[in-house]
TrEMBL record:
GO terms for cellular component: endoplasmic reticulum membrane; Golgi apparatus. It comes from Auxenochlorella protothecoides (Green microalga). It comes from the Eukaryota. Residues 74-222 form the AAA+ ATPase domain. One of its GO terms (molecular function) is GTPase activity. Keywords: Endoplasmic reticulum, ER-Golgi transport, GTP-binding, Lipoprotein, Membrane, Myristate, Nucleotide-binding, Receptor, Transmembrane, Transmembrane helix, Transport. Belongs to the SRP receptor beta subunit family. This is Signal recognition particle receptor subunit beta. The keyword GTP-binding applies. It is a single-pass membrane protein. GO terms for biological process: Golgi to plasma membrane protein transport; intracellular protein transport; protein localization to Golgi apparatus. The chain crosses the membrane at residues 50-69. It is found in: Endoplasmic reticulum membrane.
Amino acid sequence: CSLDDFIATHVQACSSDDLVALNLACSIRSMSPDMEEAWHSLFGSGVQPFHIAFTILAVIGLIFIISVARSRPNGRNILILGPTGSGKTTLFHRLQYGSTLNGTVASMEPREVTTNLASDKSPAARPVNLVDIPGHPRVRDTWLAWEKSAQGIVFLVDAVDFLPHKSAIAEQLYDVLTHPSVVGRRLPILLVCNKSDMGVKAHSVDFIRKRLEKELDLLQTTRSALEDVGGGRAASTRLLPPGAQAFTLAALQAATGIEVGTASASAQEGDGVGLVEAFVRRCAPA
């Protein structure tokens, strides 16, 4: 297409500064014969005015593309998942600010921030994109908007209120572990048992891990049987291949390469958060 058509098509995407450059390009495009002669005497006959015009437009286009790319997820996404009340937003603030601010309020919308971790000491540290996904069943699948650019998943459970909700927690974790993006990309996951500051009221990491492994094993058996009866492809949503041993996180890693680490932490007090920060920086190096 002609330069005039190109300008007419793209002018709406330009800022005021860009329009100044476009006006310059148009001025070059409409030079009088005397101006063109002066131009050739200055730059030589090999450089035509429209060459400069297209160069200016190419620079404008490059700036526009870069600005759009910066406004999108940067491919260094760390997703914070888990049921409602597990402390996800508290951890989100702890990682960003090193504190919990003035408390948190449950939200039905994801929170997202591109930031250095509060513990980063080097000014050259690269920022990471933290995404806090709501835990309510109706909206917790919004994490799928970041699935293809995620580098790791932090999955929080409430170590105090774990037993009454162990089945629901296992179902959410099962859906994450069997998701095609997690399986295909072998996304690392850190299972964080939060609220360790509650002392004896908080269950230990080993207790929670073993209970979840039993629940996940039961879910695999149940879902596979239902899909077999319904003619579905049970193997597509299995944690382990058919005929494998009872489910454990270690068996999952051996069979699929998906690493699920565990940690005990208190997002409220900051205890153990260093383990989470180390996981984040392993997934998205500084």
